[in-house]
């Protein structure tokens, strides 16, 4: 287990390799341990004495209190994970559509897996259409299934994506974009009004008022992946300027 000290942020980043054991988060003073949630790159393995957490990928270990752990990697290969949101392209239509989400097998999407969909009233998807969906079945021994509703049956931003621009990026950048404190999105949002959908299969959809603004947002996001906050500010100023458009 390696530890990298970041002087500027006064924080420590723990870099793990496959096979490294991760300490279990301590039990709070209340005495009741919260349920442990393991994200990508980690697996819980039972031993003779107790269960331990083992890293399965190389990357930076992140922890979110009270008891959430995951490894932030920079891989580009998409792996279906239950509950994650993905962007896919329709490659086959019918009562059950086939959708390419970047995994080894296309995902199934029922024509009734939309908010308010019935046999008479349902979206008419065509081959090539883009959809933003949630993985409802993600098992290595089964074909993945996606739905365009959340757990309560509402669309909540899921569904067909119209217009805009879709580009590919690393999964590490996707996770950065989903963080509330993502600096590049705040900088871009101060200058351009845009919509965005982030798929945890390495695809991002952006849509602004004009094609020029849409491409500027996409270029800014892609170029910012390995930049510091000050470098991101200079990047946005160069791409767009200082005023809101």
Looking at this protein, list some descriptive labels.
single chain; 245 residues; alpha+beta; five-stranded mixed beta sheet; five-stranded mixed barrel; 17 strands
Summary?
With 245 residues, the chain is α+β, with helices and mostly antiparallel strands. It contains 4 helices and 17 strands.
Cα gyration radius (Å): 20 Å
| Total count of helical runs of at least 4 residues | 4
Strand content: 35-45%
How far the N terminus sits from the C terminus, by CA atoms, comes to 47 Å
| Elements, N to C (H/E) | EEEEEEEEEEEEEEEHHEEHH
The main β sheet shows up as:
5 strands, mixed
Mean pLDDT: 86
- How do the strands line up in the largest sheet? 1-2-7-8-4
Number of strands: 17
**SSE-based structural type:** alpha+beta
**Uncertain regions spanning at least 5 consecutive residues:** 1-11
**What would the principal axes of the Cα set say about the shape?**
globular
Helix content: 10-25%
């Amino acid at each position: 287990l390696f530890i990298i000290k970041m002087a500027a942020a006064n924080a420590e980043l723990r870099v793990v390799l496959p096979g490294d054991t991760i300490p279990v988060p301590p039990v709070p003073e209340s005495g009741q341990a919260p349920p442990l949630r393991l994200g990508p790159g980690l697996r819980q393995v039972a031993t003779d004495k107790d269960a331990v957490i083992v890293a399965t990928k190389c990357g930076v270990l992140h922890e979110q209190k009270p008891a959430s752990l995951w490894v932030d990697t920079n891989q580009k290969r998409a792996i279906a994970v239950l509950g994650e949101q993905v962007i896919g392209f329709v490659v086959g239509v019918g009562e059950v559509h086939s959708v390419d989400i970047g995994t080894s097998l296309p995902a199934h999407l029922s024509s009734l897996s939309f908010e308010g969909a019935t046999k008479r009233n349902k979206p008419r998807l065509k081959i090539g259409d883009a959809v933003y969906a949630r993985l409802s079945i993600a098992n290595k021994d089964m074909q993945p299934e996606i739905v365009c509703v959340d757990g309560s049956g509402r669309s909540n931003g899921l569904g067909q994506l119209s217009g805009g621009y879709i580009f590919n990026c690393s999964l590490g950048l996707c996770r950065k974009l989903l963080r509330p404190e993502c600096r590049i999105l705040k900088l871009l949002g101060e200058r351009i009004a845009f919509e965005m959908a982030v798929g945890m299969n390495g695809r991002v959809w952006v849509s602004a008022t004009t094609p020029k603004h849409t491409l500027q947002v996409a270029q800014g996001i892609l170029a910012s992946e390995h930049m510091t906050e000050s470098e991101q500010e200079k990047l946005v100023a160069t791409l767009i300027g200082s005023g809101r458009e």
